[in-house]
Design a protein that fits this description.
The protein has about 200 residues and is of the alpha/beta class. The protein is about 35% helix and about 20% strand. About 5% of the residues have low confidence.
Length: about 200
């Protein structure tokens, strides 16, 4: 897909802040520090549209980015970072679940897991929720460039075993591995949404 424009629109801290134009949305969700901002920037060919941070748990809102004036990328708060307060952690969970449960314009969820590790219990919980609620989704195993081909194959096999009802792809924001396939899935999801 050719990206002609990509702009940050708003941060939403509650439902009343969500966008209201009903354009289709591609949601990105995953653990803090799994590489969501890097993946979004690499998909869009932008260096710093989504802010990356060395401090996990920095994204505390739902962030909307308008792409080509036609659809949104939606960056959900990262989950599972221990150094934030319990109340803040539960707020994030509620905010994300409310969005995922009630958003009619949601076309695809892209769940990010770190390719270097087996999925955590929180990764599994989120995946089970997506499967149970029949949400269209795909799993991007990020930071694939950090593993040798052999280790990456083994790691993907573990992730597929742990999350058996989901398509898993290896992704690297550094090398572009998985970039074209992920755009293909996004394009399909937007096509289904338009029908």
């Amino acid at each position: 897909m050719k990206i002609t424009s990509a702009e940050f629109v708003k941060s939403a801290f509650e439902r009343s802040h969500w966008t209201t134009d009903r354009l289709p949305e591609i949601a990105f969700l995953g653990r803090s520090n799994v590489g969501k901002s890097s993946l979004i920037n690499s998909l869009l060919g932008r260096r710093a549209l989504a802010r990356t941070s060395n401090t996990p748990g920095r994204t505390q809102s739902i962030n909307f980015f308008l792409i080509n004036g036609e659809f949104y990328f939606v960056d959900l708060p990262g989950y599972g970072y221990a150094k934030v307060s319990k109340s803040m952690r539960s707020d994030w969970g509620q905010m994300a679940e409310e969005y995922l449960s009630h958003r009619e314009s949601l076309a695809l969820c892209i769940q990010l897991v770190d390719s270097r590790h087996a999925p955590t219990s929180l990764d599994k919980q989120l995946n089970e929720w997506l499967v149970f609620n029949d949400k269209p989704h795909i799993i991007a195993a990020t930071k694939a460039d950090k593993l040798s081909s052999n280790k990456l194959r083994k790691s993907l096999s573990i992730i597929e075993d742990e999350l058996p009802e989901s398509t898993v792809i290896a992704y690297s924001s550094v090398t572009g591995k998985g970039h074209d396939f992920l755009w293909e899935q996004i394009g399909k999801a937007l096509g289904h949404f338009a029908k």
